[in-house]
Design a protein that fits this description.
By secondary structure, the protein is α+β, with helices and mostly antiparallel strands. The protein has three domains: 164 residues, Beta-Lactamase (2-Layer Sandwich); 116 residues, 2-Layer Sandwich (Beta-Lactamase), CATH 3.30.450; 67 residues, Arc Repressor Mutant, subunit A, CATH 1.10.10. 44% of the residues lie in helices and 20% in strands. The protein contains 16 helices and twelve strands. Strands 2-1-5-4-3 form a five-stranded antiparallel sheet. It has a five-stranded antiparallel sheet with strand order 7-6-12-11-10. Strand 10 and strand 11 form a beta hairpin. Helix 14 packs across helix 15. The protein is globular, with a radius of gyration of 23 Å.
Length: 377
């Protein structure tokens, strides 16, 4: 697709540089917004524990409205009050909730509308038990609603943003400059391997050498780095070879490669291309075209909203009302936040009582609280 969008290679390079230096995210988001004809870009995290959405990085946003978002409206928007779709799928507001209902709610009337926003394209990047990370691109009236072309262009960059976010979370350099990458390899607490386009191992940090010595996950056969699992090894070879051709070619390959040790401990590996941008410092030093990061996999569980919805066969509207009761308050408050009549909320609450076997709003709050721990009965 790079021939269709001449700047795509540069945008992808910016995204991967931001994996090593998070201060580069605003510039990367600005470039993505220009590509998809959006006005405001965000790299945001839905915090299920604190019931809000945090704007970790953004570009093009009015500082005043971002302050209002953090103080009030992060809890009222369609992302905060709706269920998420699969990782990687690009959706607009009408996919998350009825658009008429969105326009009647406080989030639109008091926050989005004054800024001229009409729609937001959202791509989920990572889902855990505590929430999820996502890429968002807002559109104003001049650009119109999220359309197929915007979805297609978002889909071009979303896998690269997803990989960069996961690698950034793994590295946690605390905003260290990308130029220091080659200086701190041996101080990292996870396995890091530098390879060339043929998969030959050219450098490993101390933890990486320990992994090779054990031989549970990876081993060195001759000069080549090999995954013990044959299927993972095939995926690794394809991903590393693609990285050798440039940042854009790696695409969706090997975003998260699963590795399992003999004691059933699970690990995950991520491949970062080193062929352009500030990451070329590592390539110049080690003659490497890709970096492989290997860490223990954190246990992840479906969000409690998904579990509750499936357990009690709730509709999306019923789930919105249920979490509105938990997060906002009683019927009048939820009705005002969602921009609907009190009678509508009361109808949904009655159905919630029937489906969950409860009889009071306090029981609904306790029900949701019971799903907070993964092993709750």
């Amino acid at each position: 697709m790079c021939h269709e969008h001449p700047r795509l290679d540069d945008i992808i390079a910016r995204i991967y540089d931001a994996a090593l230096d998070s201060m580069l995210w605003p510039g990367a988001l600005e470039a993505i917004a220009e590509l998809v004809n959006g006005q405001v870009g965000g790299l945001l995290v839905k915090d299920q524990v604190h019931k809000c959405v945090n704007a970790r990085w953004h570009s093009g946003a009015d500082p005043h409205y971002m302050q209002l978002y953090e103080q009030t409206y992060s809890q009222l928007g369609p992302v905060a009050t709706s269920l998420f779709c699969d990782v990687g799928r690009v959706v607009g507001i009408p996919d998350l909730m009825p658009y008429k209902q969105f326009c009647q709610g406080r989030f639109y009337q008091e926050w989005a509308r004054p800024q001229g926003w009409v729609d937001v394209a959202v791509a989920v990047l990572d889902k855990t038990q505590d929430g999820c990370a996502y890429l968002s691109m807002a559109r104003d009236e001049s650009s119109g609603m999220v359309d197929d072309e915007m979805r297609r262009r978002m889909a071009l960059v979303a896998p690269h943003v997803q990989r960069a976010v996961l690698i950034g979370k793994t590295i946690d350099f605390q905003q260290a400059a990308a130029a220091t990458f080659t200086e701190i390899l041996d101080d990292l607490s996870f396995g890091l391997f530098l390879v060339d386009a043929r998969g030959s191992l050219v450098h490993a940090n101390a933890v990486g050498h320990e992994m090779l010595a054990v031989g549970d996950l990876l081993r060195a056969a001759g000069s080549r780095l090999i995954a013990v699992d044959a299927q993972v090894d095939q995926a690794l070879r394809e991903t590393v070879a693609a990285a050798g051709h440039g940042d854009g070619d790696i695409g969706t390959r090997g975003i998260a490669l699963p590795l399992t040790a003999h004691n059933d401990q699970r690990y995950v590996a991520h491949v970062l291309p080193l062929t352009s941008g500030a990451r070329q410092s590592a390539r110049a030093t080690y003659a490497a075209t890709a970096a492989l990061f290997v860490r223990k996999a954190a246990m992840e569980y479906p969000s409690r909203a998904e579990i509750i919805g499936k357990t009690y066969h709730l509709t999306p509207a019923e789930l919105r009302v249920l979490f509105g009761i938990v997060q906002i308050g009683g019927v009048p408050e939820v009705a005002a936040a969602l921009g609907v009549a009190d009678a509508t909320i009361k109808t949904h609450v009655s159905r919630l009582f029937e489906k969950t076997g409860t009889g009071r709003q306090a029981d609904l709050v306790r029900l949701v609280a019971g799903f907070s721990m993964p092993l709750a009965s």
